[in-house]
Amino acid sequence: MYFLTEEERKRLLKGLIPKSRQNEVNEDLRGWNWHRPPLEPLYDVKLALYEVASRYCPTGRDLFLRRVHKVKPPPNKAMVLGSVFHDTLVTIMVRAKKLIYEKGVAGYQEIVQALREPDLAPLERYRASLGDEGFEEAMRRCRIIWEFEAARIIARIQEYLAKQPHIGEDSLVSLAIPVVVEQKLDGSFLGLSANLSADAFTFSEPMVLDLKFGERRPFHRLTTAGYALVMEALHEYPINVGCLIYAEFREDRLVISKDFHLIDDEVRQWFIEERDEKMRMIAEEIDPGRADDCHPACPYHATCWPSDGRSPGPRPRRPGP
Ligand code: SF4
By C-alpha distance, which of 38, 64, 58 is closest to 273? Predict the structure, then answer.
């Protein structure tokens, strides 16, 4: 899923990348300027990147309850499934790299054979949260993801072996699988957690990728913007492009669409405003109040909308002007 098709690559190289070079990002909004406004954090509160970028709760009360009142409900089913599918993808990418290093270029047939057999044992830990039936259904879908991704990785390995007869293992890994999954990043310069984990980063063109199993939401671009800012702060090179990958199951098929976008001033500014507003909410313990249109699957629903007439928590104290 993280690999680009030839058509996507062309569109990126002829469209978004030249555009990103023309579209100058305001220097103040580059991550390497984390030590001065507007990037400099105003509060001594560390946030996870998803806490800044998530707007599933329209008022942000989920964050208030978690961080101020320490309410920690279990994740809902969609969240657990998202983790299961992400882990499947991480497992196959890491397995493919390991196999290349272990078997070597000469062990190509063994690599192909091993990649065709899904290794879902590490996902057993999700059985308790999904129940036996839910878990078996999740595994059926994980096998679909595995087959999809294995076919692409094998094709890429074959392509580079055919083109480069003297290629070594390290070079084969970097060419055939040019993606770092679960990239660990320290976001503390920007007031974020020191243990962030980006879904994927590709170094063929510096681009942050984020995978979603759910419907498109405009605020998803906050995630790629946040990781781009963190990488700029850490490595001092510009990240101008993000890609959100949306995966959806239709019967036994996996349907994938991609949202390539510029990490421009607007989305950078939006990320910083979200960060500042949420930091303030936590530091000053401001209850943003309940939303009007809460989804019943929200993990905090029972806290915000108690059915036994209990108070839904402290009275909302709206932020001042
Ligand atoms: S129940 Fe509503 S207000 Fe409460 S956290 Fe969920 S979405 Fe937000």
Answer: 38
